[in-house]
Amino acid sequence: MTQPFVIAVDGPAASGKGTIASRLAAHYGLPFLDTGLLYRAVGLDVLTTGGDLGDARAAEAAARALDSGRLSNDAALTSGDAGEAASRVAGYPGVRAALLDLQQAFAAQAGGAVLDGRDIGTVIAPNAQAKLFVTATPETRARRRWLQLTGRGDPITYEAMLADIQRRDERDAGRGAAPMVQADDAVLLDTTDMDIEAAFDAARRIVEAARAR
Ligand SMILES: Nc1ncnc2c1ncn2[C@@H]1O[C@H](COP(=O)(O)OP(=O)(O)OP(=O)(O)O)[C@@H](O)[C@H]1O
Ligand SMILES: Nc1ccn([C@@H]2O[C@H](COP(=O)(O)O)[C@@H](O)[C@H]2O)c(=O)n1
């Protein structure tokens, strides 16, 4: 890939966007940022310092103080609690503003980048050359996340997982600040009936079509 190339991958929780995005990054030799980890880290920081997720100022302060270098290899960030905390703090415009420069700088790297999240194609990298909106039914996503979490010992039930996914979808799509929405120029990829291999192949074809434009 000779020209800078930005691939924006958005979609709801557990749709498989991170799996697809990291595989696209490896395939094209591009750096990858899972932007959900930023919001998860902020949410966890509020909780671990005894703060209140309902306190926008505390969340904004945590976002401004965030050390993005600590995002990899922190298993706590992938817990269900971190996901719930992330979606709470992600609704605060001050938190989103504090995390904006870091994400836009990542997207602006020479050569390009792959980012996944909720607002990559709409806010962070509106000029991205390839945009995907990855989705699947809530039941499919809940099952995938339930298998993932129970596989590592989390005792959550499928029913609780589905309720969590539905609550998060509503919050992410319904908030005023950078809501989760498919960008007008994003290609919808419904992975409900696809395994990981088929979903990656479909995503790669979408990116190839965008590169050829
Ligand atoms: N097409 C697929 N078929 C079956 N399982 C899948 C598929 N895609 C992803 N998975 C699995 O579903 C789980 C969630 O996938 P992933 O983490 O990629 O979702 P995500 O959309 O990035 O989630 P998050 O909202 O946490 O960012 C993982 O265990 C992953 O291996
Ligand atoms: N660009 C983004 C990325 C994430 N969020 C919020 O964080 C929560 C956790 O994200 P995961 O991708 O790790 O599930 C998510 O529910 C969003 O509320 C965001 O707002 N913008």
Q: Describe it for me?
A:
- With 213 residues, this protein is α/β, with parallel strands linked by helices.
- It has one domain (5-212): 3-Layer(aba) Sandwich (Rossmann fold).
- The chain has 9 helices and 5 strands.
- It has a 5-stranded parallel beta sheet, sandwiched between helices.
- Helix 1 (17-28) packs across helix 9 and helix 2 (36-48) packs across helix 3 (56-64).
- It is globular and about 50 Å long.
- 43% of the residues are buried.
- The model has no long low-confidence stretch (mean pLDDT 95).
- The ligand Nc1ccn([C@@H]2O[C@H](COP(=O)(O)O)[C@@H](O)[C@H]2O)c(=O)n1 is lined by residues 13, 35-36, 39-40, 83, 86-87, 90, 117-119, 168, 172.
| Mean of pLDDT | 95
**Which spans of ≥5 residues are poorly predicted at pLDDT below 50?**
none
Indicate the CATH topology: Rossmann fold
CATH architecture: 3-Layer(aba) Sandwich
Largest sheet: 5 strands, parallel
Query: Which homologous superfamily in CATH is the superfamily?
Result: P-loop containing nucleotide triphosphate hydrolases
- Distinct helical segment count: 9
CATH class type: Alpha Beta
Helix content: 40-55%
- N-end to C-end Cα span: 14 Å
The fraction of residues in strands falls at 5-15%
| Secondary structure category | alpha/beta
Oligomer status:
single chain
H/E topology pattern: EHEHHHHEHEHHEH
Question: What is the 3D shape?
Answer: globular
Q: What is the spatial order of strands in the main beta sheet?
A: 2-3-1-4-5
Radius of gyration: 16 Å
Descriptive tags:
single chain; 213 residues; alpha/beta; Rossmann fold; five-stranded parallel β-sheet; 9 helices; binds adenosine-5'-triphosphate; binds the ligand Nc1ccn([C@@H]2O[C@H](COP(=O)(O)O)[C@@H](O)[C@H]2O)c(=O)n1; kinase activity; kinase
